[in-house]
Amino acid sequence: MRLRNIPGAEAALREYPTFVDNPLFYKGNWKERFGNNNPIHVEIGCGKGRFINTLAERHPDINFIAVELKAEVVLRAVQRTEYKAIPNLAFVQYDASKLTELFADHEISRIYLNFSDPWPKTRHAKRRLTYKSFLNTYRQVLVADGELHMKTDNENLFEFSLNQFAAERFQMRNITFDLHQSKLAADNVMTEYEERFSSRGQRIYRVEASCVIK
Amino acid sequence: MRLRNIPGAEAALREYPTFVDNPLFYKGNWKERFGNNNPIHVEIGCGKGRFINTLAERHPDINFIAVELKAEVVLRAVQRTEYKAIPNLAFVQYDASKLTELFADHEISRIYLNFSDPWPKTRHAKRRLTYKSFLNTYRQVLVADGELHMKTDNENLFEFSLNQFAAERFQMRNITFDLHQSKLAADNVMTEYEERFSSRGQRIYRVEASCVIK
Predict the structure, then answer these.
(1) Which of A35, A45, A211, B85 has its CA 20 to 30 A from that of B132?
(2) Beta-carbon separation of B172 and A159 below 8 A
(3) Is B117 labeled as ligand-binding?
(4) What is the rounded radius of gyration, in angstroms, for the C-alpha atoms of chain A?
(5) Is residue B84 annotated as involved in ligand binding?
(6) Shortest Cα–Cα distance, A66 to chain B (Å)
(7) What superfamily does domain A9-211 belong to in CATH?
(8) What would the pLDDT profile of B39-69 be if each residue is shown by its tens digit?
């Protein structure tokens, strides 16, 4: 997502109780931050924040963490919380390729990848969030039966991702080429991007993949 | 494929040296029929026969068997052989759901499914050639590292098949949503149906799946 640079975004973030200024401090101890042992679900790249905010409302027994690289993007998402302290929601500004700095081995239960950058050029394949090096990072921080839930409107990224999941021995499930016309539509929480693109007739692809320990 | 009923098709078939009139006789002994121990590749549903005839020409070190239910369809395909005896090619008229009557356990190395009937109605899902009961039959007759190669122009059948392969623990590879634009196009042998449909701009989906013994 492209946003204007927002001067002072990083300072502004610290005003929000759901923003975690010192995320490395919680590695291996996120349960302390949340004050309970509930499962932790992570969204990588939070867009405008509707998805993670909605899930946090719907599932008070799950702890949600949004990990997003750009301060301006985190700020847009965290603004939805209106300075409220939401006990099961946290926003982190960090590089997703370094998830192992944020989370101990097997500390989290699920990862959401929503409309990640497709990086269409072959020479940028390693930057795609389903490239095998990312999958191995996810496997490290996810519990043994942990899951990845991926949505995209980009067919090439979807095709690439299915092949990566298969090659890295992730167990796939609920593969759909048209989420909004599928039986999974009822429980689907749309991101802002998803709503805009699907309203133009763009189909949404989705897959769940669980890490089968090699 | 729909064809007019051809009177006397079954009798006509017996005139062709590549047609095997008594296929059950060879169960477990197809190497006797071919006179060698070369790997056996099977096409289920042979269409007009170009695919299997072309593969047999290109790969003299592989034995090919086309299994097709309808006598009229087998006849059209076998007519391409022009009454020649082709040492590594055999045509069989038989029901693919009964492959275990034709082949001993682990007797064959590869199965091709080309443009199988999509059976679009949900209540007919069990008839699709990638339904789990078929996959378990294939697993039984295929060698341990045996492969299924599937092509289709039907997106719903492809989506269904990917889910079946995943659920039945087949290891997928080379998943492509547009075969003719992919790196696999160079080695692709087009069926008659494929040529006709792709010339109209219809995309071809393809996947390889190998049976990982449970």
Answers:
(1) A211
(2) no
(3) yes
(4) 16
(5) no
(6) 29
(7) Vaccinia Virus protein VP39 (3.40.50.150)
(8) 999 999 999 999 999 999 999 999 999 999 9
